[in-house]
Design brief:
Elements: E1 6-12, E2 15-21, H1 23-43, H2 68-75, H3 80-94, H4 102-110, H5 119-122, H6 124-133, E3 137-141, E4 144-147, H7 149-160
Antiparallel strand pairs: 1-2, 3-4
C-alpha cells in the first residue's frame, strides 16, 4: 500500500479530467482517454470554449413557512407513521437538515395538533420501524434518519403541486 499518489487535472474548453491515483493506472488508462479528449475537442469548435458554470434554478421560497401540520394535511396523514413522515419531510426538505434524530421527529410531530395524539409517544419506536420498513425513511447514522430518495422526490412533488397552503 506504500504506493505514491499522482494527481492530474486537464481542462481544455468544455472537457475536463481530474485524476488522482496510481501512476501506472494514469499511464495505461487515463492518458489514452486524454488523447481521445484532445482529438474530440480539436474537431468540434463548440467544445473549445469553456462551459459556463451550471446555474441551478432556485425553488420558490413560498413553501418555507409551511408547518408540520400543513405538510401532514397536504400529504393526507392518517396515522402516526404518516405524521412522522411529514415531520421528517418538513425538517429535511423545508429546513434543509441532512438528518434528524428520533427526538427531533417526535418534537416536530407534537407541533401538528390536528394530527398528534399522546399515544404516539409510547409507539414512537414502532412508528420509526414502520417508516424504515416501508423505505420512506432511512437510518443514516446512529439515531439519525433521513428521507429515502424516492420518498423525498414524491413528497417534493406533492408539496410543489400545492398552491393553496
Amino acid at each position: 500500500m506504500g504506493q505514491d499518489t499522482t494527481r492530474l487535472r486537464v481542462k481544455l474548453g468544455a472537457a475536463e479530467i481530474d485524476y488522482e491515483g496510481s501512476e501506472e493506472f494514469l499511464r495505461q488508462e487515463v492518458l489514452p482517454q486524454i488523447s481521445q479528449m484532445l482529438e474530440i475537442v480539436a474537431s468540434r469548435a463548440e467544445l473549445q470554449q469553456p462551459v459556463e458554470a451550471l446555474q441551478l434554478e432556485a425553488k420558490p421560497s413560498a413553501c418555507r413557512p409551511m408547518t408540520t401540520n400543513t405538510v401532514a394535511a397536504l400529504l393526507g396523514a392518517s396515522s402516526a407513521a404518516d405524521l412522522a413522515l411529514a415531520a421528517v419531510a418538513r425538517l429535511t426538505i423545508l429546513e434543509e437538515r441532512e438528518s434528524v434524530s428520533r427526538l427531533d421527529i417526535l418534537a416536530e410531530m407534537k407541533l401538528a395538533p390536528q394530527f398528534y395524539k399522546q399515544s404516539f409517544v409510547n409507539n414512537h419506536s414502532n412508528t420509526i420501524k414502520t417508516l424504515l420498513k416501508s423505505d420512506k425513511v432511512r437510518l443514516v447514522g446512529s439515531d439519525r434518519y433521513s428521507l429515502s430518495s424516492k420518498a423525498r422526490k414524491d413528497i417534493e412533488a406533492q408539496l410543489g403541486d400545492q398552491d393553496d397552503y
